[in-house]
Design brief:
This protein is of the alpha+beta class. The chain contains five helices and nine strands. It has one domain. Helix 5 links the parallel strand 6 and strand 7. It comes from Lobosporangium transversale.
Length: 187
């Protein structure tokens, strides 16, 4: 994911604040104010799909599927991105754009269902945010959610996507809990 971010179209990111935005809401402060314009999830989804398809699909032969339709009883669900290749672990990625604590919690809570329905070995919640000072107090999954295989990464970025910082909490292949806090990325 860190490598993929290097290929985000920075001009698109800047323009999307005016063309494809949502409001940060009354509880999320961005650039000193509430209800600020922030990018919609679809902007990050489109960029990730473009990059992952060109990289993993065309070069490595992985299937990169967006909005995989899942059906459970009378409920229809759609996972954001699924990465799949025969003989390799299936990975489900759930995206969130500048979310409140409750929206992050909701995204985390639905991810084990997607993981189960897709028989995925790995699941990641990927939260892109512009919230002021977010990485000083990020919301993390519970130990029980981590034990269910829900990994979480937060990417904070500035308006121009020149500065990107990452914090992540996950279990490695050996089942050991790993954590990165406030790492400055090269983009």
């Amino acid at each position: 994911m860190k490598i993929a971010l290097r290929f985000f179209d920075k001009n698109l990111i800047i323009q999307s604040e005016y063309r494809s935005y949502k409001r940060s809401g009354r509880t999320v402060k961005v650039m000193g104010g509430y209800n600020a314009k922030v990018l919609r999830e679809s902007v990050y989804d489109t960029e990730l799909m473009r990059i992952l398809t060109n990289w993993l699909n065309k070069i490595e032969g992985y299937g990169i599927i967006s909005q995989w339709h899942l059906h459970e009883l009378e409920d229809h669900k759609y996972s954001d991105i699924v990465i799949k290749k025969a003989g390799e672990p299936t990975v489900v990625i759930e995206l969130l754009a500048t979310g409140s604590q409750s929206s992050i919690k909701d995204c985390i809570s639905k991810t084990p269902t997607y993981k189960r329905l897709l028989s995925a070995e790995e699941a990641w919640v990927v939260h892109f945010t512009r919230e002021d000072d977010y990485l000083e107090h990020p919301y993390w999954q519970t130990d029980a959610e981590l034990d269910q295989g829900v990994n979480l990464v937060h990417f904070w970025h500035d308006r121009s996507f020149d500065t990107v910082k990452m914090s992540a909490h996950w279990k490695d292949k050996s089942g050991n809990s790993q954590r990165i806090d406030n790492e400055l990325l090269t983009v």
